[in-house]
From TrEMBL:
Domain (ABM) ranges: 5-98
InterPro entries (UniProt xref): ABM_dom, AI-2_Isomerase_LsrG, Dimeric_a/b-barrel
A Pfam entry, by short name: ABM
Official protein name in the record: Antibiotic biosynthesis monooxygenase
Keyword tags: Monooxygenase, Oxidoreductase
GO molecular function annotations of the record: monooxygenase activity
Domain of life: Bacteria
Native source organism of the sequence: Caulobacter segnis
Length: 98
């Protein structure tokens, strides 16, 4: 049975791009949280590596993830990321979630 979807993205700033990356990621928080299918959208920074950020996202289902990916704010983010950061993303289906 389809269920919630967790997305984890790890972004490591390219040299000299940490501030620009952080600004872009911070701009994603409020519009992403406002999406109807979003349950959680949190931005974390690694204190040992201040240019490394983690996006922790939770959606009601895959349809909500697809809707997020279609938004103008996500499309803008996606267009800017290659110049700002290395990006790894995991999209996870719930298995045993409280």
């Amino acid at each position: 049975m389809p269920g919630k979807v967790k997305t984890i993205a790890v972004l490591t700033a390219r040299s000299g791009k940490a501030d620009a990356l952080r600004k872009l990621l911070e701009q994603m928080v409020e519009p992403s949280r406002a999406e109807p299918g979003n349950l959680r959208y949190d931005l974390w920074v690694d204190p040992a590596h201040p240019g490394r950020f983690v996006l922790d996202e939770l959606y009601v289902d895959r349809t909500a993830v697809e809707a997020h990916h279609a938004t103008p704010h996500f499309q803008d983010y996606l267009a800017q990321i290659p110049a700002l950061a290395e990006r790894s993303v995991w999209s996870l289906d719930e298995a045993a979630v409280a």
